Amino acid sequence: MGAEAGAEKATTQRRGQGARERILTAAARLFAEQGITATGMEQVAAEAPVSKRTLYLHFRTKSDLVLAHLRALAESGSTLAGVLTLEGLDPRERILRLFDPPVTDAAVARGCPFIDAAAEFPDPESPIHAYAREQKLLMVRLVAALVTELGCEEPDALAEQLVTLADGAASRAMVLNEADYGRHARAAAETLLAHASPGTG
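The structure assignment produced for this chain is given below.
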């Protein structure tokens, strides 16, 4: 009897995990297509599909769902920060990969999801805005470490310049619906790196 109860519990847990993943997948798709604010919890439940009760068992509030969505993005390695930790690439190539078109099935170009989230939740004290800020600060730390490894001059200032280029390119790609807009910023990044590299000046 104990074994049966254990098996039933394990089955319930698996189902719960599947529902959570479906909810996050649905939320990611809807947030990208129509924005966070315009997406309601009922719409996410219908898209998943799960009951509203199941949705609220996993995410008590919409803010909880948005934070989980952003954390899942960060952990996926598919964000700009994720590009900077790719294995098998030298530091310079990792930096320049920031300007490659994103790998996505979306019919239209998307900007940085963390910038988008911060714009939709503009209060700096908002947990969502704060998490987006953490990811942007992580990005600049990763770039600073890479340019330090390359021996570049003034690595902290250079890192800020490079991430500003990357974020600006992502935003313009979205506004102009031009997925490969980053090529313009890449050319500027190559110039910055060349000027800051050892032996130049």
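Interim note for the steering committee: The radius of gyration is 20 Å. Confidence is low (pLDDT under 50) at residues 1-16.
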